[in-house]
Specification:
mainly beta; disordered N terminus; single chain; about 675 residues; 5-stranded mixed sheet; globular
């Protein structure tokens, strides 16, 4: 029996203040959708390379999601149903990879020894590693059985597919690869051994004369239910090639049909995989990619096409380009702002390549509901990092944009439109960084000296923040550089800085958070600086590290933005990562907010929390959707000093349950 998914949320009635800020990461704080589809992992970090496979690794009747990246193999377990998938992150180390295996790891599952459980093969660098499953179908346990399964010294980064191409009862092997002289072709290894003891013999380095140009990624699937395997191949350009097998299960004959199956274009390095994800007895299609940006478009993570036809006559419907993650490309930089003057804040996200993605808000001030609206709202150059403010006192937002390319520029864009329909016109370049050794990484507008105009701070990649004072006026901005190291920080090359300002302690002056990213240490974090001065003369002091990650927890840089998302009087935080997705952190400065914890006792779900001073009762609500407003009669009422609630039998119910607690006082 599956366990229900429990997400614990809190509704709060009152805002009081504390310092320094305390943030709680939330994976499902409010809806954010692409084409009416919410990425299944919610606000979760994303990655760059997506080479995936599906396998029922725990033998519970549904498909789990596995993909490789650099020195990691990620497992996302399916905690939904066979007909309605839902995923939970389990591990980034499903197996222990060979050191220095390289990027673009490509996992593939196959019961190669015919013992009733799934073994794992990993294509990486210039080798294929065989991990034998010495566990059971219900509980996998992988060990390295062969660190060089086939002789692959003449190609790199293979993408694998095992099928029985000749219907002799054992698995044969097909390889596509990149980073070589022949990386648009397919290699074919025929199994001349047995189902229990495979012996792979290289039969062809140019299978059927097929060459897709670059970065071939094969996938075999009987797409028309005629009892033989058809062939699909991803390529570097992001499309999918289709060859129909007009032979039979013993004697294949692949006939070219198209190099642009379904019109698919995922931007870069497509990796097709078929699987019946909704248990309706036909094959659905997922296409992974390499989400590195510079394609001037959203690239996504796994593009999902649902088969609404039959096993013999497929009819694919595009569902989403963001299946697991909110991946929009690379280098997501968020900004929360009412850009169209409708009294609700929208979310803007700059991505590598230049576009700014717009998420409109159809929710409320307390509970936003964001949906994808435009993939190129403002097409700024290369890697846009931006900040908004009314620089000419005309009632609309102007913009400062750092445009990173081989030469970095910080540009002033004046709004020549209206508050409802902004049109940003290039006014002039404020700063230029001509050396590729140094680059501007973040910009922020803030009236740091309380003189009625907005000053400019620019982060750099050497652990420095520039200060440009606005020496003009409220209506005519003019920026003058005062210092290239406002905080007198030590020089650290490739130590990126992304400043944001806000009055966290409500004392009338600006405090600061700085997102940082260190390539050398592979560490990322958010530092908090308290303003110990006043509104006219700041004195910012590094006080705390409010978030820190290392290793695979984030894919690269950390781009913060601030906004009161729930209208409770404090500043919450969005974070963009270099992989192209978003994280969300709620500000818990309100003493009436508390973190709920969960435990199970048999089939009972137990919620517990810390005592909240002044509380007269704790009202518990739950529903089968994480986005609901508590109303009516609660499912439970707890009176102080008790701080726990038992939902009897809930863990034995098939489905999911989401909890919210309202504090009465």
């Amino acid at each position: 029996m599956k366990k229900i998914m429990l997400i614990l949320l809190v509704i709060v009635p009152l805002a009081l203040y504390s310092q320094p800020p305390v943030f709680q990461q939330e994976q499902y704080p409010f809806p954010l959708s692409f084409n009416n589809f919410e990425p299944l992992m919610g606000f979760h970090n994303s990655y760059v390379y997506y080479r995936q496979d599906f396998a029922d690794i725990d033998n519970d009747g549904d498909f789990d999601f596995i993909f490789g990246l650099e020195d990691y193999v990620f497992l996302y377990k399916n905690i939904g149903y066979p007909s309605l998938a839902n995923y939970s992150f389990i591990t980034s180390s499903l197996v222990e990879l060979i050191p220095q295996a390289g990027t673009n790891n490509s996992p593939c599952f196959c019961d190669i020894d015919n013992d009733g459980d799934l073994d794992l093969f990993e294509g990486s660098a210039c080798r294929i590693v065989y991990y034998q499953n010495i566990g059971t179908p219900d509980s996998a346990a992988f060990i390295i059985a062969d660190s060089s399964f086939t002789n692959t010294s003449y190609y790199c980064h293979p993408t694998l597919d095992f099928i029985d191409i000749d219907d002799d009862g054992d698995y044969d092997l097909f390889l596509g690869f990149d980073w070589s002289d022949y990386d648009g072709r397919l290699y074919f290894y025929r199994n001349i051994g047995t189902p229990e003891i495979p012996i792979m013999s290289l039969e062809s380095t140019f299978f059927e004369g097929i060459d897709v140009g670059n970065a071939s990624a094969p996938e075999f699937c009987d797409i028309n239910n005629d009892n033989d395997y058809d062939l699909f191949i991803g390529d570097k350009s992001g499309t999918v090639w289709y060859y129909e097998n007009i032979g039979n299960s013993v004697n294949y004959d692949f006939q070219y049909v198209t190099s642009n199956y379904l019109g698919i274009d995922v931007g870069n390095m497509s990796v097709p995989r078929f699987c019946d994800i909704d248990a309706d007895e036909d094959y659905d299609l997922f296409v992974g990619n390499e989400s590195v940006g510079f394609s001037n478009a959203m690239e996504g993570d796994f593009t999902f096409y649902r088969n609404d036809g039959t096993a013999a006559n497929p009819d694919f419907t595009f569902i989403t380009g963001q299946y697991l993650f909110m991946d929009m490309s690379a280098g997501a930089q968020p900004y929360y702002i009412d850009i169209d003057d409708d009294s609700l804040k929208e979310l803007l996200v700059g991505i590598v390549g230049g576009p700014v993605v717009l998420f409109e808000n159809q929710g409320t001030l307390q509970e936003p509901n964001l949906f994808f609206s435009d993939s190129s709202l403002f097409n700024w150059v290369a890697v846009p990092r931006f900040s908004f403010g009314d620089l000419d006192d005309d009632g609309d937002y102007d913009a400062i944009v750092a445009q990173a390319s081989f030469i970095d520029n910080v540009v002033l864009y004046m709004n020549t439109g209206t508050p409802m329909n902004p049109i940003f016109t290039n006014a002039y370049t404020i700063a230029t960084q001509p050396s590729p050794t140094y680059c501007y990484t973040g910009v922020e507008l803030c009236d740091i000296d309380n003189d009625g105009d907005l000053d400019l701070f620019i982060g750099e990649n050497c652990n420095r923040i520039y200060f440009w004072e606005n020496t003009g006026s409220q209506t005519h901005p003019q920026f003058t550089m005062i210092t290239n190291n406002y905080f007198n920080q030590s020089y650290l090359q490739f130590y990126y800085q992304y400043p944001r300002f806000g009055d966290f302690d409500h004392d009338g002056d600006f405090d600061m958070i700085v997102g940082y990213h260190s390539y050398s240490g592979v560490a990322y974090g958010i530092n908090y600086w308290t303003n110990m001065g006043n509104a006219f003369n700041d004195s910012l002091v590094l006080t705390d590290t409010i978030a820190f990650w290392e290793g695979d927890n984030l894919e690269g840089a950390v781009y913060p933005c601030l906004g009161d998302v729930d209208n409770d009087g404090d500043l919450d935080m969005f974070l963009g990562d270099a992989g192209g997705a978003l994280l969300f952190y709620r500000n818990l400065e309100n003493p009436y907010q508390t973190e709920l914890t969960i435990s199970l006792s048999g089939s009972d779900v137990i919620l517990t929390w810390q005592t909240i001073p002044g509380a007269e009762q704790y009202r518990i609500f739950y529903a089968d959707s994480c986005y609901f407003t508590p109303a009516g009669t609660p499912q439970g009422v707890v009176l102080p000093p008790d701080t726990s609630f038992i939902d009897a039998g809930a863990a034995g119910v098939w489905g999911q349950r989401f909890y919210r607690m309202v504090v009465g006082y």
